[in-house]
Amino acid sequence: MVRVPKLTRAEVAQAVRNPLLFIADRWTPSPRTVRRAALSAVVMAVLIVVTGGAVRLTGSGLGCPTWPKCTDESLTATSAMGFHGAIEFGNRMLTYVLCAAVGWAIIAARSAKPWRRSLTRLGWAQFWVVMGNAVLGGIVVLVGLNPYTVAAHFLLSTALLTVAMVTWQRVREGDHAPRPLVGKAVSQLTWLLVVVAGLLVAVGTVVTGAGRHAGDSSDVHRIPIDWKMITQLHADLAWAVVALTVALWFVLKAVDAPVGPLRRTRDLFLVLLAQGVIGYVQYFTDTPEVLVGLHMLGSCLVWIAVLRVLLSLRERPTAAPAVPGPAAERPQPAAAG
């Protein structure tokens, strides 16, 4: 058995006053552990979107009809609430797993040596986005799955995914000023790609809000807009993102860009291809639930791929350790007695 060290009263007070500093003084995670902690937050950010989609697609959005309790009398789902109550309450519980992943990322970043304040701040940014989205999720329930609040809920989840991806990227970099790997024109083209991809995601939430999967079997308000028209706009934006991706790849080849941006752009094109196939199949098959769920997963993967393209256009070199010169390595003569 491992012997547990006894803590003094001063150490207990320090742990209560600043638990992160207390842990950091006694634990130094390896760089691999910090990377895994940051990646776990990314994975959970995607998973919470997928499970939230499952809640809506199974008609369980009001399985727990109130918030923060599941019912007015019970904090948890009861057997009388059946399948829908279990699905909705299970998704609420998964939020705690997401908080645990973000908390692990914060602790690992704070305990790493040397301490990098930028990583800790990114971790706390994730935490506050999670808290804000949890409150917004409660509002979604309290207003009866209003489609505008549902869209905002998804967009805030995308914001969480963005911060988590930036954190994961920054863990593998140094804290020096970023050095661009491409010219200004290529960077501007990439930012245009990011903006259009963001519009694609935003319009996708409107398609969902106007579509037939309301999230509950009751009469839920839908966005009063022609669904086919907004779906066509969504498809047009998707083709614009594909065209910009292809154009960016050719531009990167023409300017002899590093292999990193080229590979990330290729990956984005392949993800867009798969997402486009799923999107068209679900459109012509009257949006079956399974394909809609896969499309939501694909939306996260597309956004991740877009961010990876953007982040690949610069590098932040890590500080190289000082190497002693020949004079420093030469042994000093012994002092004369």
The backbone outline, from C-alpha atoms, is flat
Beta strand %: under 5%
> For the report, how would you describe the main beta sheet?
2 strands, antiparallel
Number of strands: 2
How many helical elements? 11
Radius of gyration: 25 Å
The secondary-structure element order is HHHHHHEHHHHEH
From the N-terminal CA to the C-terminal CA, the straight-line distance is 54 Å
What share of residues is helical?
Answer: 55-70%
Mean pLDDT: 88
Order of strands in the sheet with most strands? 1-2
* Helix-strand category: mainly alpha
Structural key phrases:
single chain; 337 residues; mainly alpha; two-stranded antiparallel ribbon
Task: Note down, in words, how this protein is organized.
- This protein has about 325 residues and is mainly alpha-helical.
- Helix content is about 70%, strand content about 0%.
- It has 11 helices and 2 strands, in the order ααααααβααααβα.
- It has helices at about 10-15, 20-25, 30-55, 80-110, 115-140, 145-170, 185-210, 225-255, 260-285, 290-310, 325-330; strands spanning about 180, 315.
- Mean pLDDT is about 90; it is low at about 320-335.
Short description:
This protein is mainly α and 337 residues long. It contains 11 helices and 2 strands, in the order H-H-H-H-H-H-E-H-H-H-H-E-H.
Sequence-ordered SSE layout with sheet pairings:
Elements: H1 9-17, H2 19-24, H3 31-57, H4 82-111, H5 117-142, H6 147-171, E1 179-180, H7 184-210, H8 227-254, H9 259-284, H10 289-311, E2 314-315, H11 326-329
Antiparallel strand pairs: 1-2
Helix pairs in contact: 3-4, 3-6, 3-10, 4-5, 5-6, 6-7, 6-10, 7-8, 7-10, 8-9, 9-10
